[in-house]
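Can't paste images in this forum, so I'm doing it all in text. The chain is below; anyone willing to post the predicted structure tokens underneath?
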Amino acid sequence: MGNGILGVSMGLTGSNLIHAAAGGDEQVDFFIHAYKKLFTLFGQDVYLTTTHISLIIVIATILVFAVCANRAVRQADAGKVPGPFLNFVELIVEMLDGMVASSMGPKKALRFRNYVGSLFIFILMCNLSGLLGLRPPTADFGVTFPLAVITWVLIQFNGFRYQKFGKIKSLFEPIFLFAPMNLISEFSTPVSMSLRLFGNILSGTVMTGLVYGLLPKVLTLIWPAALHAYLDVFSGAIQTYVFCMLTMCFVSDAIGEEI
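Text version of the structure:
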């Protein structure tokens, strides 16, 4: 891997792990791998990496699903009898709307259900991509941190929009001596949210990589289903829910009782 690759973290795709474990002279590693140099920005070489490829696959999958869902809705509006796929789509939408409404209230949910729902689906798909032999994009801090920054901007925007000067006043509560700590607390939100998601997904990626690296060549052909069921499905779903729940709680607190 060349110098100056943008992106930090450890991990390896399932297919690479199997290949590394099967080869006697190859060493298992957990780094992001570069495939092609794209361009140079401010003296740094930018490469097409494992994370980018996984993101492209995840985003393409979501887009195909969205197009198919939109087509199914249009056909239903035209009088066609809804099929199982449309019922599945409606189930997902109702579950996400219910989750947002239960956390933020019905009025606030109308404003933020699209964002939280999109965030939930994207993070969940990234976390579950390990089941397909991909390296989860959320195991890269370069993915989780921008997601947390977007949420942080949304928190600050709504805080100043609804609290106005009360947002600044809250930094000096209960007394002005707490201003530095309150300010640090505000800016630590995206760091803590991104590190929580990144750390949990990365640890699962590393544990899976170690297991595949230690398994004999014959056993690498049989995936340990229980390991993936916990690290990819259960843990991935929990971390998705935690990230979205924190987003809803922080945004709701920033708005207050204005709506």
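Confidence is low (pLDDT under 50) at residues 1-26. The longest helix spans residues 179-214.
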